[in-house]
Design brief:
The structure holds 2 protein chains of 2 kinds.
Chain A: E1 12-14, E2 23-29, H1 33-41, E3 49-56, E4 59-66, E5 69-73, H2 75-78, E6 81-84
Antiparallel strand pairs in A: 1-6, 2-3, 2-6, 3-4, 4-5
Chain B: E1 6-12, H1 18-26, E2 30-34, E3 41-49, E4 52-58, H2 70-82, E5 86-92, H3 96-108, E6 113-118, H4 120-125, E7 128-130, H5 132-139, E8 143-145, H6 154-166, H7 183-196, H8 205-213, H9 217-226, H10 230-248, H11 252-271, E9 272-274, H12 282-290, H13 295-334, H14 347-363, H15 366-382, H16 385-397, H17 406-413, H18 420-425, H19 433-442, H20 452-462, H21 467-491, E10 503-505, H22 514-548, H23 554-575, H24 587-606, H25 612-625, H26 630-633, H27 637-668, H28 670-682, H29 689-697, H30 704-712, H31 722-729, H32 735-746, H33 752-762, H34 765-793, H35 797-817, H36 829-839
Parallel strand pairs in B: 1-4, 1-5, 5-6, 6-8
Antiparallel strand pairs in B: 2-3, 3-4, 7-9
Classes of the chains: A alpha+beta, B alpha/beta.
GO molecular function (chain A): transition metal ion binding
Protein name (chain A): Ferrous iron transporter FeoA-like domain-containing protein
Keywords (chain A): Iron
Chain lengths: 85, 840
């Protein structure tokens, strides 16, 4: 848990800011309540690799490959996930 | 031991192939029931193995056992309250790690567990080899490998169930997940709970402690009701939680989930071997097209088109084969009903025939439903549904709906020709409660098949020149209005309903099994038939009385009786010089012949497509049964022609007489009174009392709107169509009237069958009443605006159409801009701060 304070030093962005084709490693899932639960259910944990596959035809939601499987979430929900590029 | 009845439950995450395992074990014999007070349905089945009877319950698919969704609560409560003898945890071998999250939670709940490691074939294709023995050792659980879709591992799994049952598994003291720094607090809290429990807890205390640290609502309630000093426990938990958060910059809940993730990772490492590197799967390649910016929407449109073409158009063809069947049924019953007199049918006869007609009008949709449900099952099994949601979510979310609202709206008839019943049934998958209710409430606004006859009738009379334009108007205005309604509903009535995030798995594509598809199609159609039939009967009886009572006064009946005598006298005098005269002496003889002649024609029509042999057989049987009058039916020669001619005239005169009587009865009936009572209000929408009666009687089933109008605008001359009659008899009726009526029909409240489905899917009659009430108000308001507003502005029907369309579009656009509520989440304050820092 020691890397909690690495944030803010550059490489850290939120998942909604990433573009299709980019990838990174999840640093933290800041969502609580039901969003936090659903994200964890589908494998959004620190240390897990994420790939942004594509945006939907109307830009939102976004398809993400997380830990080997594909998940679609809205940008509103993706902004809770901090990613190290 | 051997005599104990075994209750086995199936649990697993969505897309684990749980239902294929269920079908594999039970062979498809099943019973679907709604869980009390919930909209989630649970399937139960049974099978016998090694001389033991085993009942099997298919629990809803869940990712976790938190308290956030109905499915999760039901799965959890079922395991705690029903304490099944064994829980079979179905896992997707190609995605072992993620499926282990649930396994850990089931273990902590103390459920005796057996693992069905499913879809090993899919795993192999993706280059993953799962070592079942290693998995069994690591989890200390029996593991059976299966491929549910191909029936592989069936007997092994059944053997495993019996063996697991006999060995009395007890997992309570198995701690697979190590919660690290939280472990000591969990032990502490468990000890505290042990001391303060009032009676021995139904659930393992370790599980309860973990759940309390996860701040689970249901666990907190459990403590309040079953433990002494719940205050103490609560204080302890919140103290530890805030301490933990300060120290680790994470909630215990997040930490607990993370430790499960680590444990799963460890087990995966030990049990899964990568045999080859598959970088781009077939699914990836398909998705590049199916989810792409340009092709995605086009393919979606193509699928919608195919869905309509195959089910509605193809299904409609098939209804041609249903008609003779249903008519045969009606004719079979008709034979046993008393005949009555020339003027009056006995109550029992008209009532029974009325009820059968109503039932038939619903049963005729069975072929459409069978095809529709089979196609939906295919789309579900293939895995297209989440892709559909992915493509359209943005659009629907603007209006408070959800990407998963797409299918229900398509089924309801986004453009023209759907059915609200399967539409409402399909809302079940929508994970977002608020969006689900909104979708249920707007599906009936779509253009179902039954609305179409009235549209075509009105368009052919009043918009004959702009047919295509009017058809385009009516088939697109409904979705525009429905989206606005959905937004308004979610901003008002549904404001406080919980909303959930849009987090959907996009599973790899699968080839569906024929068996699975057929079973689901039949199961859903049967559910519809069973639920709807009884209520339809009750409603048909009610409508019958409302349209027939109070009946016409004695004095008026006498007038009709006189007319009847005249008609009969004309007939008997015309045939008095033929040899048949002796057979038509009494009223009874004439009436009987009328009924038999009708029966003969009906049955012959039902055999229209049958073989010559069958038709001959029918003639023979008919001749035997009615030997006295059969020769008259096809009587030839001079006398025969005279009889036929006289009979035809009498039949027509009688039909007109009965229609007059029916019309007068309807005038004076409760429904007629209601129609007249409402006229002062509906006048502003341009509806006279006749239209009111037609609209009121359509409440039972919309198909009858045209039929009722048919009665009201009765035929004066032979061969006049209803369109001609309406035009002739309603001189004051303008295209603007028609437009108002069409818009009212577009917003028409759902039929009884749909209302029943609304009650089931939304979970209460309250919703059915809302679904019934708001469209009436809305439709009336819009129709009034169109008619009164249009009259005031001096608009023609077509101009009114354009103005209304423009206003509706602008309204929808503006409503789409209004910000809806956001999913509730106590956002970590640091997120925003952290972001600001990062941006500096």
């Amino acid at each position: 848990m020691g890397r909690a304070f690495v944030s803010g030093l550059g490489g850290m962005i939120t998942l909604d800011e990433m573009k299709p084709g980019e990838h990174g490693v999840i640093h933290k899932n800041r969502a609580r309540g039901v969003i936090g639960q659903r994200l964890m259910d589908l494998g959004f944990f620190p240390g897990v690799e994420v790939f942004v596959i594509r945006n939907a035809p109307l830009v939102d939601p976004v398809e993400i490959k997380v830990d080997g499987h594909h998940v679609t979430i809205r940008h509103d929900e993706a902004r809770f996930v901090e990613v190290e590029k | 031991m051997g005599h104990k009845k075994m209750h086995v439950a199936l649990a697993g995450q969505p897309n684990s192939g749980k239902s294929t395992i269920f079908n594999m074990l039970t062979g498809g014999r099943q019973f679907v029931a709604n869980y009390p007070g919930a909209t989630v349905s649970i399937k139960t089945g049974a099978f016998s193995w090694q001389e033991k009877k085993i009942s099997l319950t298919d629990l809803p698919g869940t990712y976790s056992l938190s308290s956030y969704s109905e499915e999760e609560r039901i799965t959890r409560d079922f395991i705690i309250d029903q304490s099944p003898s064994l829980v079979v945890n179905v896992m997707d071998a190609s995605n072992l790690k993620r499926h282990l999250y649930l396994t850990f939670q089931l273990l902590e709940l103390g459920a005796p567990l057996l693992i069905a490691l499913n879809m090993v074939d899919v795993a192999e294709k993706r280059g993953l080899k799962v070592d079942a023995d290693a998995l069994s050792k690591n989890l200390h659980l029996p593991v059976i490998t299966t491929v549910g879709s191909k029936g592989r591992g069936k007997n092994e799994l059944k053997d495993g169930v019996i063996k697991a049952f006999d060995s009395n598994l007890d997992h309570e003291h198995l701690h697979i997940v190590d919660y690290g720094d939280l472990e000591s607090y969990i032990t502490d809290l468990s000890a505290k709970l042990l001391q303060s429990q009032i009676e021995e807890s139904k659930v393992p205390l370790r599980w309860l402690s973990i759940k309390l640290f996860e701040e689970d609502e249901v666990a907190q309630k459990l403590v309040s009701s079953n433990f002494k000093n719940p205050e103490d426990v609560r204080n302890y938990v919140s103290k530890i939680c805030s301490e933990f958060e300060r120290k680790y910059d994470d909630t215990p809940r997040g930490f607990i989930a993370f430790r499960r993730h680590l444990a799963a990772q460890k087990i995966e490492k030990r049990c899964v071997v990568k045999t080859k590197e598959v970088s781009v799967t077939l699914t990836d390649r398909i998705d590049r097209l199916v989810c792409s910016r340009i092709w995605g929407p086009l393919i979606l449109a193509g699928i919608i088109y195919l869905l309509y073409e195959l089910s509605i158009v193809g299904g409609y063809e098939l209804t041609n084969y249903m008609v003779p069947l249903l008519e045969g049924f009606r004719n079979a019953i008709e034979k046993f009903l008393p005949i009555g007199t020339f003027l009056r049918e006995p109550l029992i006869r008209s009532l029974v025939l009325n009820v059968i007609t109503s039932i038939n009008s619903v049963l005729i949709y069975i072929p459409i439903f069978l095809i529709l449900f089979a196609l939906i099952a295919i789309l579900e099994d293939v895995g297209y549904m989440p892709r559909m949601a992915f493509i359209l979510d943005k659009l629907f979310r603007r209006f408070g709906l959800h990407g998963q609202s797409t299918l229900p709206l398509i089924l309801g008839g986004v453009f023209v020709g759907g059915c609200a019943v399967p539409g409402v049934m399909a809302t079940r998958v929508i994970g977002d409660e608020k969006a689900r209710l909104a979708t249920i409430l707007i599906v009936p606004l779509m253009n179902c098949l039954a609305k179409v006859p009235l549209y075509t009738l009105l368009i052919s009379i009043y918009f004959a020149k702009e047919k295509a334009l009017a058809m385009f108007f009516i088939s697109t205005i409904t979705i525009i209005l429905a989206l606005s309604v959905a937004k308004i509903l979610t901003l008002t009535l549904l404001k406080n309903r919980p909303s959930s995030p849009f987090v959907l798995e996009m599973p790899p594509y699968h080839i569906p099994t024929i068996r699975g598809v057929l079973m689901r199609s039949i199961e859903r159609t049967w559910l519809f038939v069973r639920k709807v039939l009884t209520i339809i009967m009750i409603v048909a009886v009610a409508v019958f009385f409302l349209t027939n009572y109070p009946s016409v006064g004695e004095e008026r009946i006498n007038t009709y009786q006189k007319r009847a005598e005249q008609i009969k006298n004309v007939f008997t005098s015309k045939i008095q010089n033929t040899p048949f005269a002796s057979q038509f002496k009494r009223d009874k003889d004439i009436t009987r012949y009328l009924v038999i002649e009708e029966r003969y024609k009906n049955q012959k029509r039902a055999l229209f497509k049958a073989s010559d042999e069958r038709r001959e057989k029918f003639e023979q049987r008919f001749a035997e049964r009615y030997s006295d009058v059969y020769p008259l039916l096809n009587a030839k020669g001079k006398d025969g022609r005279a009889l036929n001619k006289a009979f035809k005239v009498m039949k027509r005169e009688r039909a007109l007489l009965l229609m007059d009587l029916r019309d007068e009865t309807l005038h004076g009936s409760f429904l007629g009174m209601a129609g007249k009572f409402l006229e002062p209000v509906t006048r502003f929408a341009g509806f006279n009392w006749k239209v009111n009666v037609a609209l009121l009687s359509s409440l039972a089933a919309k198909e009858s709107s045209v039929a009722t109008l048919g009665v009201l605008y009765q035929q004066k001359e032979d061969g006049q169509t209803l369109a001609q009659r309406m035009k002739e008899q309603e001189k004051g009726f303008t295209p603007l009237h028609a437009l108002a009526l069409m818009i009212f029909m577009a917003m028409y409240p759902p039929c009884i069958a749909t209302l029943i489905m609304v009650k089931i899917e939304a979970g209460g009659w309250k919703w059915a009443f809302i679904a019934l009430g708001y469209p009436i108000l809305l439709g009336m308001t819009l129709a009034t605006l169109v008619y009164s507003g249009g009259t005031w502005l001096g608009l023609s029907g077509t101009q009114g159409m354009f103005v209304f369309y423009a206003i509706a579009l602008v309204t929808a656009f503006l409503l789409g801009k209004v910000k809806g509520s956001v999913v509730e989440t106590d956002i970590d304050e640091k997120t925003l701060k952290g972001k600001e820092v990062a941006n500096l």
